[in-house]
Amino acid sequence: MRRLADRVVLVTGGARGIGRAVVETAVREQAAVAFLDLDEEAGAALRDELTGRGARVAFRRVDVTDGQSVADAVNDVADALGPVDILVNNAGRNVYADPVAMTEAEWDQVFDVDLKAAFLCAKHTLPSMIARGSGAIVNIASLHAKLTCAGMYPYAAAKSGLVGLTRSMALEVAPHGVRVNAVSPGYIRTALVDEYFDQNPDRDAERKALDVHPLGRIGTPEEVAEVVCFLASDAASFVTGAEWAVDGGLGARFA
């Protein structure tokens, strides 16, 4: 398939998990792909692996919570591959805080990564999209934007904010031919989900999670990536301001 042929895709948090799957799927769809991550070793290894297969790929170690670093990275991507056509805001972090014990600095760290970074990356990629009258942004939110659980404060607030940002931004840029959507994964087999199960005091947490999934299993990063790349492509040309759940039906269940 060539859904993203001749497009330049920028993925944040692209070295592992869902981000890596998006990078690999976009490459399969014939895009030129740049990705950003703090994990320089994993990022360089993925870049080398993909370029070895003949893909047009660039990697930068970037702190996406720093506006100047993001601006510089977007300029570097434009020089290396061309102006960004598609932005996937995937970078994020889990948090397990207490509403009283959590410090202001810890709060800011969560919202800087899970929400502010999406604004910064959009801020610096949108000008060229608007100038060309086309483009797409896909924000990776979470099932926690609508349904959450104790012990993950304030992750739901940050992801709810990202869905709200998606809607607001979609309305602002729609007149310029740019689409903005969100994808909300549920339980996906990533390092973050494994971390959640490992740190959960309930040693039966994973089995209980599986028991309430209508499809009876946890999803894969590749399944999320397929939806992301669909929304980024012209196949979804009349979709904007939407939040797509990729959760195995968990969000539809009354439990």
UniProtKB/TrEMBL annotation:
KW Oxidoreductase (keyword) present: yes
Pfam family, one: adh_short_C2
MF-aspect GO terms: oxidoreductase activity
PROSITE patterns: ADH_SHORT (PS00061)
InterPro entries the UniProt entry points to: NAD(P)-bd_dom_sf, Sc_DH/Rdtase_CS, SDR_fam
Keyword Oxidoreductase: yes
Keywords (A to Z) from UniProt: Oxidoreductase
Record EC number: 1.1.1.-
Family, as annotated: Belongs to the short-chain dehydrogenases/reductases (SDR) family.
UniProt name for this protein: SDR family NAD(P)-dependent oxidoreductase
Native source species: Streptomyces aureus
